[in-house]
Amino acid sequence: MRTLILLVVCGVLGTARMAHADEGKLRFDPVSLLVGKDVTKVELEPKYDSDGDNFNGWLLGGKVKIPATKVEGSAQAALLEFNDAWALGPVIGKQFSGGDPEENSWKFLLQGECELGLRTFKYFPGAGEEDEKSTRLSFAPAATALFWKGSQTREFAFQARIRYAREWKEAKAVGIVTPGSEADGTPALVKEEKIVDQPSVTPALTGLMYGYTRSGSSNVAFGLALKYTTTGTKELHALSKGPEVFRPEFWVYYLPSDVKPANLRLGVGAYADLYTRGEAEEDVETYGLLLQVKWGTPVFAY
Predict the structure, then answer these.
(1) What's the alpha-carbon Rg for the chain, to the nearest Å?
(2) Residue closest to 290 by CA, chosen among 248, 261, 257, 256
(3) pTM of the predicted model, to two decimals?
(4) pLDDT score at 16
(5) Residue 83: which of 117, 114, 113 has the closest Cα?
(6) pLDDT tens-digit profile of 159-173?
(7) Is residue 258 packed enough to be buried (19+ CB in 10 Å), middle (13-18) or exposed (0-12)?
(8) Could you say which of 66, 123, 130, 191 would form a disulfide bridge with 42 (CB–CB 3.0 to 4.6 Å)?
(9) Strand partners, 48
(10) Could you give all domains of the chain from N- to C-terminal order, each with its CATH number?
(11) How far apart are CA 27 and CA 58, in angstroms?
């Protein structure tokens, strides 16, 4: 079903491209790979750009998120904009640009999107042998504003983003104990692990402020991201009583090309999670490193 939806989206975009062959362009970027100790995800944004490569048109398309791992903790998942399962959704944006590309130019992007993910969960109520299934819809609308300015001597970018997420998560598996026998001295044993609880959802609101800078024709660039996430109570929509986390991220990038803006970026970032309310959930890392490969336009985005 998800593959069919993606093919339909690409088909619509392809039709739009043929209708505006003299102006528009079908693009499949940016493409991003993010890898950390407990997270691996791929993001794709196939979309139609009404103004080709001039950065002055409308963007219409979709986003695809492909997770390869699970992230424990609702706050950490929100900070990483991570989904435990595939997510698809529409993207719409407007681009603006001006100035002399050889001397001093600027670009500005406003973009809105909404990720949607439909997932069926299986669990065993009361640790019994009969399983039950529950299908839930996760969603996460987001809005982004991005500004870039560059010249022969320096380029910099600033980005602001806000995202609200209701992501359904699978309950943790627990060990099912087989009772022992005092008569023959048989000890109690953990026979297997089962998921006995229904899936749950915790609302989360995440704000991002991000800065990026690169000097001259250097192949090295630097970025600083400041994130703040507030979460709510399970099963409710309101944002209250859950953990609140502030996360700074310090990034160093290698840009193989000296073209401005670059179209390929390799990055390594260090982060630390500082809890302003509540505490980290069990098995959650609160510091570490992230690796990123990002290709496409605008590569200077977070």
Answers:
(1) 23
(2) 248
(3) 0.81
(4) 41
(5) 117
(6) 999 999 988 888 887
(7) exposed
(8) 66
(9) 26, 60
(10) 2-295 (2.40.160)
(11) 12
